[in-house]
Amino acid sequence: MSVDKATVAKIASLARIKMGDEELERMVPELNGILDWVEQLGEVDVSGVEPMTAVIENHLRLRDDVVDADPKTAGGRREDVLANAPAAEHGFFGVPKVIE
Amino acid sequence: MTELTNLGVKDIRDGVASGEFTAREVAEAFNAAVAEAASLNAFIVTTPDHALASADAVDAKRAKGEDLGTMGGVPIGMKDLFATKGVQTTAASHILEGFNPQYESTVSQNLWDAGAGMLGKLNLDQFAMGSSNETSYFGNVSSPWRKAGSNAAMSPGGSSGGSSSAVAARIAPAATGTDTGGSIRQPAAFTGICGIKPTYGRCSRWGVVAFASSLDQAGPMARTVEDCAIMLEAMAGFDPKDATSLKMDVPAWEAGLSADLKGKRIGIPREYRMEGTDEDILKSWEQGKEWLRDAGAEIVDVSLQHTKYALPAYYIVAPAEASSNLARYDGVRYGLRDLPDGAGLQDMYAATRAEGFGDEVKRRILIGTYVLSAGFYDAYYNQAQKVRTLVSRDFAEAFGQCDAILAPTTPTASFPLGSLNDDPLTMYLNDVFAVPASLAGLPAMSVPATVNSDGLPLGLQIVGKPFDEQGVLNAGLAIQQRAGFDAKPEKWW
Fold first, then answer.
1. Which residues on chain A are in Cβ contact (under 8 Å) with B336?
2. In sequence order, what are the beta bridge partners of B197?
3. Which residue in A1, A50, A84 is closest to B99 by CB distance?
4. For residue B423, what is the nearest residue in chain A, using CA coordinates?
5. Is A92 helix (H, G, I), strand (E, B) or coil?
6. Which of B9, B135, B147, B454 has CA 20 to 30 A from B414's CA?
């Protein structure tokens, strides 16, 4: 499988990365080089093999059912949460207008 | 008095504890060495005040007769992938330039709790994506090493290239690294230092900028195996804030160190004899076998038959996870925002990400987006995850016949900066020996073995069973004692 410029443009749009014509042209052979090379995985007989889901056996824990059990990840930290926002307004994240 | 910047973790800790010198003297010496070494570009920001404040706290504790901690008085470099409260954390990207975390990563907090201080935030490949430290928004890092008879700037490896450069140049006694597909071991090998990636889950990922979450693991980089053991002990530990953190006690790795390998079997994977591997590297591998035999180990042949497929599987799995993890950089919550005139929300996302990510990061996001997209998921991503199961199974079978595996860390020694930039694939091949252990979540370490005919360091890699960091460290120690690696880069910076 290989990608053409239109496909790369589609992927870039899915990934929300703006790309001009020149950049798209440049990406086509680079991505095809990588994709051709990973094609070799198709040679491997994987019949009956489960895809890996956890690299080290571990079972997911449930945290204690306590409000704000860990103060670092609990609520009430609006200022910290907004501290690095490029455009915080009135205690919220500001974004360009989305409703006309 | 010995030059303080020549000392490693253990010597500094013990010297501070015994009163041979103060933690402040150590911090001052390293701060000065860091300030002098700007031409290496190893640090993105320096934090001399952090180092001094931690040192003063340790000296004050000593005056009161209190416990100084297992890293008491040791100033270290922190890879700029760990969130540090109040200190800019960028992952070497433009998109996070100016990001000032409101919290501290678990691993860095563990180190401060153990008495360590911070010299600064170390440069790296952007979002840890790269093997030469040439993808950083903040410029290339130079290795302190140079080829005999040449002034060309050499790669310190990547992605933990600031870490490897700083430790090899002796402007930091140790540094944190992170390893997703070789990012601790390959730079350690390139610069003649040690580095260990523990079993997946040993070190908390909380507060570490995510690249590929099923692979990312933090680990120490230092000049000796003992120093790595001490520092890993301080970094590791269960953290309820990381769902994949291992709920296990941290073994006393430092106390458990032993270079006596009697009764141990070391496996040599035949598939690691690959075309394109440097003659000098193959020679050092043979030498490594001799050293381990001399330490009492039995050398056995093992097979890891899917080795060849590990790297292509990695270059599907890691970009897939990255494309998902890096979706968070949207110009809304933190970091860069690029809002062209009249742009709507979607245009803002696309413009911000175009401006904020470097080429290699974009390439991997695109690959990841493609392999996860409808119609291709099974052929690429699922197939790669199945191959990953097979790679992991190979190791499990090999460990039925041996206790640890010995292999080269890299197929070549370091190369000049700029020499491998034309083709992403040739760069990826640097990690061909490192990636299999990453895919299987295994502990793995690089230890310096020798220098090649150009005077550049070569490393040997030990891969261990899950949770057997001790076995890895012990085999590393056996190599260290026999290799007697004492080559140092000549100071030019």
1. 86
2. B444
3. A84
4. A30
5. strand
6. B9
Does the structure show a pLDDT above 90 at B295?
A: yes
pLDDT surpasses 70 at B1: no
User: Known catalytic residue: B183?
Assistant: yes
The single-letter code of the amino acid at B357 is F
Q: Are B37 and B255 in contact (CB under 8 A)?
A: no
Nearest CA in chain A to B320: A15
| The predicted structure's pLDDT at residue A58 | 80
Contacting B residues, span 98-157, partner chain A, CB-CB under 8 Å: 98-103
- Residue range(s) defining the domain that contains residue A10: 5-42
| Residue among B54, B93, B105, B159 flagged as catalytic | B159
Name the CATH superfamily, with its identifier, for domain B4-258+467-483: Amidase signature (AS) domain (3.90.1300.10)
| Rounded distance between C-alpha atoms, residue B75 and residue B52, angstroms | 9
Name which of B472, B444, B381, B422 is nearest B179 in CA terms. Answer: B444
| Helix, strand, or coil (residue B334) | coil
Confirm whether A11 is domain-assigned. yes
Mean pLDDT of B19-48: 98
**Averaged over B45-54, what is the pLDDT?**
98
* A-contacting residues in B 376-395 (Cβ below 8 Å): 376, 379-380, 382-390, 392
Query: What is the model's pTM?
Result: 0.97
The label of the residue with tokens 């970091």 reads B335
Q: Is the pLDDT score of B307 beyond 60? A: yes
Task: Kindly state the average pLDDT of the residues B148-160.
Answer: 96
Q: Tell me, yes or no, if B386 is annotated catalytic.
A: no
Domain count across chain A: 1
Answer yes or no: is A31 within a domain.
Answer: yes
Which tens digit of pLDDT belongs to each residue from B208-238?
A: 999 999 999 999 999 999 999 999 999 999 9
Residue B98 has pLDDT above 80, yes or no: yes
- Nearest Cα residue to B77 out of B203, B169, B162, B151: B162
